[in-house]
Amino acid sequence: MSTPERPGGPDEQPLQVIGQLAGGIAHDFNNILGVIINYARFASGSLPPGSPAHDDIEEIRRAAERGVGLVRQLMILARREAGTAVVFDLNELISGLDGFLRSTIGAHIQVERRLREGLWPIADDPARIEQILINLAVNARDAMPGGGVLTFETENVEIGAGETLASPNVQPGRFVRLLVSDTGTGMDSEVAARAFEPMFTTKASGQGTGLGLATVYTIVTQSGGMIDLSSEPGLGTSVEIHLPAAEGGVAQATRPTQAAPAGRGESILITEDDIAVRRVAERILESAGYSVRSAGGGTEALDLLDDPSVEVDLLLADLVMPGMRGDDLARRAVAMRPGLNVLFMSGYSDQAPPTDLGPTAGRVDFIDKPFDAGTLLERLRELLA
Ligand SMILES: Nc1ncnc2c1ncn2[C@@H]1O[C@H](COP(=O)(O)OP(=O)(O)OP(=O)(O)O)[C@@H](O)[C@H]1O
Ligand SMILES: [Mg+2]
Known about the structure:
11 helices, single chain, Heat Shock Protein 90, Helix Hairpins, Rossmann fold
């Protein structure tokens, strides 16, 4: 393969503009997409099996999921999303992608994995690292319309001070090396030189937005890692990524998605100002066997909590609401009802979900918006266990 391109990285100026625009609409946009995704599921679930409308609804759901992915990439690019770091095993994350690869990549592409045993764990947000894997896999797929081989390789490497010189923000030390390569069309040197630019794409409109590699680049550099690209027209492309190994710490299992667990009649108080999102949450929880009360804002929720005849095991609250914020509501709620569990729903905002609500709080967690029924129910089960 040709000499590796050392990417200069995305230009900061347009990214700031993208960030401001995206930040302004991401919260509302995600609420809208969440409503579409969940109603598509409800509609599909109420159709007789074999109905031709299933496929149409599935297309609606998929388009909305693409929208969610796009917002996510914009927020990463705009550096508005920091993510939550845990220590985990990259090999496990790659293996867990099996189902995604089978459904997205297609049978004409063979997927190979050469994963080093005893790989050092990394400390990062698994969702962000998964985004890297997905973006690279999708690029590889697009580059191999006639089939080929997509390979994921991992290994441990120590990098000395001399080797990180080209990346002044990278500290020398122990790294996990990830290589994602394909046997596709490759890129000529002009395309390769621009590949990391945001909004640079050679794909037809609707097929690509040109944010994939820019997002990968941003995630890697924010993680203190390095990225290189090498490509040869007609032969293929490989992207080499070095992510810093975690200092100490034992890898936690990245959780595979399981069948949605049901409620056991526990009482949930939903507080959400967006009426469509509130209805979606009500419907998910009621059909899963929870007893549901809902409020359109903090004051209304506190009134309910003040009534001793209203049972509440868990408060499911939007973090960003006009009037009383979700965290203010939760602080007052746990003071009124010691032991109350709280699950915050958070879209993109500059406000991080609080983890400490004081000594009277029960368990506290948060869920990203938009959520689907499975994730919401899983999170509730964990909190109510
Ligand atoms: N594996 C690859 N093989 C060949 N060309 C690639 C590969 N990966 C990226 N490219 C080229 O780099 C361009 C930019 O890639 P990038 O992932 O940033 O955007 P995209 O794939 O066009 O759109 P998006 O990822 O936003 O859907 C692509 O349009 C393509 O020309
Ligand atoms: Mg792409």
